[in-house]
Amino acid sequence: MTLKYYHAEPVANSLKSMIPLKEKGLAFESVYVDLHKFEQHSDWFVAINPEGQVPVLDHDGAIITHTTVINEYVEDAFPDTPPLRPADPVGKARMRYWNKFVDEHVMNFVSMHGWHRMVGIIARNIESGEFLKLVERIPLHEQREKWKTARSGFSEADLANATRKIEVAVDKVEDQLGKTPWLAGDMYTLADINFYAHCGMMVERMFPEMEIAKRAPRLVEWRDRVTARPGVQAALEMPDHTAPGLRTWTGHAR
Amino acid sequence: MTLKYYHAEPVANSLKSMIPLKEKGLAFESVYVDLHKFEQHSDWFVAINPEGQVPVLDHDGAIITHTTVINEYVEDAFPDTPPLRPADPVGKARMRYWNKFVDEHVMNFVSMHGWHRMVGIIARNIESGEFLKLVERIPLHEQREKWKTARSGFSEADLANATRKIEVAVDKVEDQLGKTPWLAGDMYTLADINFYAHCGMMVERMFPEMEIAKRAPRLVEWRDRVTARPGVQAALEMPDHTAPGLRTWTGHAR
């Protein structure tokens, strides 16, 4: 059995599917894809994932993409490892409700602020002819547009809407954690990992004006519980090749 | 065991979770929610689903929302019925890849054209004070905005982008059907039902300028195979209370 994981820095999508591998103690080959060099759009990588996006899981030649799909796959393919998905149908549905919420209403909005602060700087440091050539290689229309917008700057209206979406998410999670210890109930699941990797781990640092400790104390306590897990620690310790001054998501840059 | 399904007309989301119930021969109580009277935002319904959206599945008191989540739930809760999800992990991942694609890159874009043509007419027929009161009752911010935009009219740029997204989806499905008989492989699955309910069943009729029969002949043949299934027929025969002149999705209005 060979398991290969193509990924970037330990944050957002790359972290989200790294955590289950570590939690389950699965041996895998780590293949680092350098986003700073646009390696995800290079020929060798697009031959593996035609959408040109990390992460990718290669399990004995079966290529699995999209983190929510990867994480359910790992549950299905390795049923003898510690489960991160409830055994009962209602529990599974609760977990999938939250996964859908994070995928559709959280991820892209935190991401927009991250791109605005970090990727925009990277994009503006590239000479414009070179930048156009890099953009042309990007397989997905949405990603091409995102890179162009990151360079020219996201609009204030879009950034304000993204902030509003993040506030809604924070309040929704805080409310849920008043009812159950984890997002989908009594058990730590892929839903917690999803919200943690895309928002929970960095929301307090990235948005000090939200006063997260005051607004969402249960979220902070939950975040610390997730961070303390050995599987999460092991995933967070994977290499970070981003320049320290640009570590908007993973470090202390703003 | 009691199974209750709250739904509107047999199209889009309401159809998408009706088909599995019919395919599996599950006995359920049908509760019609009248969207023409904004019943989905009424107190009695919001008490069941705080998000104010159909459909909802109530299984012995467990409330399941969001059609992709409902459909996986029905697979998990009734394992002895004919499966609509592959048994092997890779097959499941292929199905979920397509479900995610339809949920995030297809559904809202066909929906925008449907709203533009049909819901816009309904919204403009309501006196503006009354309309504002109706909108205030809508729980989700995104839905409030969608109703307001439907009344004032979607922008040409948004409609053109939606058309582009639908064309990308049609070409992607056509390409996949050149490789496998169904979207996720050799088996008819929830992925086929998802694309059918949100796009496949009506795309040729709603967008004649796309020349679907010429552009995507395999999609047309696949659509006819899905339509011919007795479970799909039974779901399509559920009552349609939309005025015939407004049946943009379910009938022949444009």
How do you describe this structure in short?
The structure is a homodimer of 254-residue chains. Chain A is α+β, with helices and mostly antiparallel strands and 254 residues long.
Detailed description of the structure:
The structure is a homodimer of 254-residue chains. Chain A has 13 helices and four strands. In chain A, strands 2-1-3-4 form a four-stranded mixed beta sheet, covered by helices on one side. Chain A starts with a strand and ends in an 18-residue tail after the last helix. Chain A has 254 residues and is of the alpha+beta class. In chain A, helix 1 runs antiparallel to helix 9 (190-200) and helix 9 crosses helix 12 (217-228). At the A-B interface, strand 4, helix 3 and helix 4 of A face strand 4, helix 3 and helix 4 of B.
Q: Could you report the average pLDDT of chain A, rounded to the nearest whole number?
A: 93
Q: In terms of quaternary structure, what is this?
A: homodimer
**Which chains have the largest interface?**
A-B, 23 and 23 residues
- Low-confidence stretches of chain A at least 5 residues in length (pLDDT < 50)? none
Keywords:
alpha+beta, 13 helices, homodimer, four-stranded mixed β-sheet, 254 residues, globular
Question: Could you give the topology of this structure?
Answer:
2 copies of one chain form a homodimer.
Chain A: E1 3-7, H1 12-23, E2 29-32, H2 43-48, E3 56-59, E4 62-65, H3 67-77, H4 89-105, H5 107-124, H6 128-136, H7 141-152, H8 156-177, H9 190-200, H10 203-206, H11 212-215, H12 217-228, H13 230-236
Parallel strand pairs in A: 1-2
Antiparallel strand pairs in A: 1-3, 3-4
Helix pairs in contact in A: 1-3, 1-9, 1-13, 4-9, 5-7, 5-8, 8-12, 9-12
